[in-house]
């Protein structure tokens, strides 16, 4: 049978991994796909790099637009990244009737609605397993494996850089800035790590998963995003004493009045499997009404783990290449006319539990004042640590865990607590999820 011809845009880490894995496992992949899948053209600005990876065995060009216009190319694999030229190339490939495979979570989270609509109109597929959690097949699980379920919520450790940093902070008691430098030296963090440490990368991925889980459009601009830059080692230690671990979680939850979509540092009970995901690994926990909780774990980045997902998409597209577009799996799991524009709730309306750390004067009645304010806001305390002041100190820490409440109630209570003359500085507030 005639081979499927692939044009590869970008042969950096993931592109090189894709080329090598496809070549190494060519026979196995052909047996699964039913026909050979061959990268015939590679576009990259660095032609010397492209030549060293491919050995000159394929056509090389520095003009990616020539690849998406080439009538001999059946599938375009976009591994350039970013929002700009990648969007132009993907839309041009679709316009030219080519299927697209991409690992570009930022592109899909921001421009996915436009891209999927264009693909639907043209009758081509856009596959993006590699865009979320590297080699973990979470997109396929959400879109196909769990299709019988009404997904209730999902929570994911979906950024390896931040998970590595938090693991090191907990294990070694080091401050954030020091561990970040270590992560950069080891290659886990970029020279500019902003997207990772500020939670933006995780929010891109959570946006994509929420759309598939709930049948809603991509709504990245509505996500609440917090990173880990202000997290202190003391809070990681206190959380541990209370039986919790702190992870940067991407959370999407179905509510009666809308959908929660948020990324932030989160306390998780240490006994949960996901709380024990360490280093640069990823994990996603999904709660369905029929299946219950399912956990997906593995490498969330790297050349060959991500290439694994890219090639799985290539095989899927190859199998369905000649299928009636109406009978393919929809991009967002739900039929396009059944995607519903459900409201993403503002963070003030989110319901969760809280970790509060207060620095207070060591005086009688302080705790009574604080608990009275919490009670006035209908916030009940689940657990508490009151530290003895160090010798010669007149201030101490109080750490509280609350039961669930609406965020706006927590904010109002915190503002009143901070106004007390016996409270020193700002209250440290972290959200807590039991993930039951």
UniProtKB/TrEMBL annotation:
<dbReference type="GO" id="GO:0050661">
    <property type="term" value="F:NADP binding"/>
</dbReference>
<keyword id="KW-0521">NADP</keyword>
<keyword id="KW-0479">Metal-binding</keyword>
<comment type="similarity">
    <text>Belongs to the homoserine dehydrogenase family.</text>
</comment>
<keyword id="KW-0028">Amino-acid biosynthesis</keyword>
<keyword id="KW-0486">Methionine biosynthesis</keyword>
<dbReference type="InterPro" id="IPR002912">
    <property type="entry name" value="ACT_dom"/>
</dbReference>
<feature type="binding site">
    <location>
        <position position="190"/>
    </location>
    <ligand>
        <name>L-homoserine</name>
    </ligand>
</feature>
<dbReference type="InterPro" id="IPR016204">
    <property type="entry name" value="HDH"/>
</dbReference>
<comment type="pathway">
    <text>Amino-acid biosynthesis; L-methionine biosynthesis via de novo pathway; L-homoserine from L-aspartate: step 3/3.</text>
</comment>
<dbReference type="GO" id="GO:0009088">
    <property type="term" value="P:threonine biosynthetic process"/>
</dbReference>
<dbReference type="InterPro" id="IPR019811">
    <property type="entry name" value="HDH_CS"/>
</dbReference>
<feature type="binding site">
    <location>
        <begin position="9"/>
        <end position="16"/>
    </location>
    <ligand>
        <name>NADP(+)</name>
    </ligand>
</feature>
<dbReference type="Pfam" id="PF01842">
    <property type="entry name" value="ACT"/>
</dbReference>
<dbReference type="GO" id="GO:0009086">
    <property type="term" value="P:methionine biosynthetic process"/>
</dbReference>
<dbReference type="Pfam" id="PF00742">
    <property type="entry name" value="Homoserine_dh"/>
</dbReference>
<dbReference type="InterPro" id="IPR005106">
    <property type="entry name" value="Asp/hSer_DH_NAD-bd"/>
</dbReference>
<feature type="binding site">
    <location>
        <position position="105"/>
    </location>
    <ligand>
        <name>NADPH</name>
    </ligand>
</feature>
<keyword id="KW-0520">NAD</keyword>
<dbReference type="GO" id="GO:0004412">
    <property type="term" value="F:homoserine dehydrogenase activity"/>
</dbReference>
<protein>
    <recommendedName>
        <fullName>Homoserine dehydrogenase</fullName>
        <ecNumber>1.1.1.3</ecNumber>
    </recommendedName>
</protein>
<dbReference type="InterPro" id="IPR045865">
    <property type="entry name" value="ACT-like_dom_sf"/>
</dbReference>
<dbReference type="Pfam" id="PF03447">
    <property type="entry name" value="NAD_binding_3"/>
</dbReference>
<dbReference type="GO" id="GO:0046872">
    <property type="term" value="F:metal ion binding"/>
</dbReference>
<dbReference type="InterPro" id="IPR001342">
    <property type="entry name" value="HDH_cat"/>
</dbReference>
<feature type="active site" description="Proton donor">
    <location>
        <position position="205"/>
    </location>
</feature>
<keyword id="KW-0791">Threonine biosynthesis</keyword>
<keyword id="KW-0560">Oxidoreductase</keyword>
<comment type="pathway">
    <text>Amino-acid biosynthesis; L-threonine biosynthesis; L-threonine from L-aspartate: step 3/5.</text>
</comment>
<dbReference type="InterPro" id="IPR036291">
    <property type="entry name" value="NAD(P)-bd_dom_sf"/>
</dbReference>
<feature type="domain" description="ACT">
    <location>
        <begin position="355"/>
        <end position="431"/>
    </location>
</feature>
């Amino acid at each position: 049978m005639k081979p499927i011809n692939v044009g590869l845009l970008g042969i950096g880490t993931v592109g090189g991994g894709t080329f090598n894995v496809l070549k190494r496992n060519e026979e196995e992949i052909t047996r699964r796909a039913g026909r050979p899948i061959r990268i015939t053209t590679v576009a990259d600005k660095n032609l010397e790099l492209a030549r060293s990876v491919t050995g000159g065995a394929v056509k090389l060009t520095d003009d990616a637009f020539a690849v998406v216009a080439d009538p001999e190319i059946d599938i375009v694999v976009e591994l350039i990244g970013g929002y700009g030229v990648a969007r132009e190339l993907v839309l041009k490939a679709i316009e030219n009737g080519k299927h697209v495979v991409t690992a570009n979570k930022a592109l899909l989270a921001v421009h996915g609605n436009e891209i999927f609509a264009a693909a639907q109109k043209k009758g081509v597929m856009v596959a993006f397993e590699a865009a979320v959690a590297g080699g973990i097949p979470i997109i396929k699980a959400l879109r196909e494996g769990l299709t019988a379920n009404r997904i209730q919520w999902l929570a994911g450790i979906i950024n390896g850089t931040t998970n590595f940093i938090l693991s090191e902070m907990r294990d070694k008691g080091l401050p954030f800035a020091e561990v970040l430098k270590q992560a950069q030296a080891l290659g886990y963090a970029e020279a500019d790590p902003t997207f990772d440490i500020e939670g933006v990368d995780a929010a891109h991925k959570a946006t994509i998963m929420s759309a598939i889980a709930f049948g809603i459009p991509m709504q990245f601009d509505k996500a609440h995003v917090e990173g880990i830059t202000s997290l202190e080692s003391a809070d990681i230690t206190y959380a541990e004493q209370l039986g919790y671990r702190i992870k940067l979680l991407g959370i999407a939850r179905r509510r009666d009045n809308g959908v929660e979509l948020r990324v932030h540092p989160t306390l998780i009970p240490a006994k949960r499997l996901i709380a024990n995901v360490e280093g640069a690994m990823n994990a996603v926990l999904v709660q369905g009404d029929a299946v219950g909780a399912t956990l997906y774990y593995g490498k969330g980045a790297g050349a060959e783990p991500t290439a694994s997902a890219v090639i799985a998409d290539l095989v899927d597209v190859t199998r369905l290449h000649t299928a009636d577009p109406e009978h393919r799996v929809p991009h967002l799991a739900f039929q396009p006319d059944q995607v519903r524009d459900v409201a993403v709730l503002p963070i003030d309306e989110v319901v969760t539990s809280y970790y509060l750390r207060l620095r207070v004067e060591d005086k009688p009645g302080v705790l009574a004042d604080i608990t009275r304010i919490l009670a006035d806001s209908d916030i009940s305390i689940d657990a508490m640590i009151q530290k003895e002041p160090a010798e010669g100190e007149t201030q101490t820490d109080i750490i509280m865990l609350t039961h669930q409440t609406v965020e706006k109630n927590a904010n109002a209570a915190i503002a009143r607590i901070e106004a007390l003359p016996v409270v020193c500085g700002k209250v440290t507030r972290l959200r807590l999820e039991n993930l039951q």
